[in-house]
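Sequence design from tokenized structure. All designs in this work follow the same two-part layout: the structure record, then the generated sequence. An example of the structure record is given first.
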């Protein structure tokens, strides 16, 4: 444990104590997540690739790490920032958060004033930062000055599968592929969370997982009932091939998506996406269904959103954020397209949004 420093791109600094894996000039966009539980799912969510995650809950790690709760094959976040790291005993069969971080080679900082950092990011916006020790200050400052913005980084390649996988094995504790599937979905992997596939499996849907480089021909060669675009990290405006794929498939097959998939579909339909000041990261975001008038609580993790003024007239704004009225879901009955910005698989988070998967399946009938 050594004194460590977080320096933001605008020059603001915070200090704390290092833990976890070796700290060696870790740079990335600094964001905050307001969820109370779910640190394991957050760390292993591929959507956090390239980001340094600050957790606002005052103590993190008290229930340890379980093998079955990973959302991918390991930690995808660049680093973790917490106020207090729990160092006591955990349940049998689990390991501590510190051990998990060390095993994955991912560093963290504790004893940092996460409340002050969160308020600073809320007021000034998410921005690049770097973690370092004082003796590496000169090198760290040079690295931070030249480090590309999140809008300049294509972060998909490192979190997508490399070849097609039919009903992938999701590991211990996960839902298993259906023996007699009711539907078959081609799912493009931009950094998919395992719990999304589990939610599809639990509804009798089989999945063919395709790499982010998949073409229209690759999709239709599988004769799927729908094309599904997953969540993932980074700026959707950089993903020209993904947008082109979605555009080529819309109107020929039902197209659905979650989070980054929602943003890709927005662009494919002719809309625009914009970067948010500090995004939505947490498990307590209220979403309003404009079709039913119902409001429910959702888990979210995104720094970009659809620009409502850019959406074509054929697109219905299905869901809106009840806090800031940002677009949370759209559909087009003409094109059989439907997508949401939040995470209905809710890992971590409330489960009331799970009915979104049922709505997706209803659109396939």
């Amino acid at each position: 444990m050594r004194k460590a420093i977080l320096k933001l791109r605008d020059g603001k600094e915070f200090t704390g104590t290092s833990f976890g894996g070796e700290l060696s000039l870790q740079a990335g966009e600094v964001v905050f997540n307001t969820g109370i539980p779910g640190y394991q799912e957050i760390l292993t969510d591929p959507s956090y690739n390239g980001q340094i995650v600050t957790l606002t809950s005052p103590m993190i790690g008290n229930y340890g790490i379980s093998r079955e709760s990973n959302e991918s094959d390991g930690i995808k976040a660049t680093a973790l920032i917490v106020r207090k790291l729990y160092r006591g005993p955990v349940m049998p069969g689990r390991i501590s958060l510190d051990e998990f971080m060390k095993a994955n080679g991912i560093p963290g900082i504790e004893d940092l004033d996460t409340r002050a950092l969160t308020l600073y990011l809320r007021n000034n916006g998410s921005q690049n930062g770097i973690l370092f020790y004082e003796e590496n200050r000169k090198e760290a400052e040079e690295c931070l000055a030249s480090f590309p913005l999140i809008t300049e980084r294509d972060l998909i390649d490192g979190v997508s599968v490399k070849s097609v996988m039919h009903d992938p094995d999701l590991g211990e504790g996960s839902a298993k592929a259906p023996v007699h599937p009711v539907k078959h979905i081609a799912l493009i992997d931009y950094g998919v969370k395992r719990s999304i596939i589990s939610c599809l499996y639990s509804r009798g849907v089989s999945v063919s997982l395709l790499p982010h480089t998949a073409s229209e021909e690759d999709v239709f060669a599988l004769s799927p009932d729908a094309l599904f675009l997953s969540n993932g990290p980074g700026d959707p405006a950089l993903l020209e091939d993904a947008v082109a794929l979605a555009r080529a498939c819309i109107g020929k097959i039902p197209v659905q998506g979650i989070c980054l998939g929602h943003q890709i579909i927005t662009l494919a339909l002719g809309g625009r996406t914009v970067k948010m000041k500090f995004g939505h990261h947490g498990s307590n975001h209220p979403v309003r269904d404009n079709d039913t008038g119902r409001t429910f609580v959702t888990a979210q993790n995104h720094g970009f959103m659809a620009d409502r003024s850019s959406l074509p007239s054929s697109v219905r704004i299905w869901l809106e954020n009840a806090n800031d009225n940002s677009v949370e879901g759209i559909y087009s009955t003409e094109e059989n397209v439907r997508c949401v910005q939040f995470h209905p698989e809710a890992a971590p988070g409330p489960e009331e949004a799970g009915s979104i998967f049922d709505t997706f399946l209803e659109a396939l009938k």
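The chain has a mean pLDDT of 96. We note this feature because it recurs in several other targets discussed in the main text.
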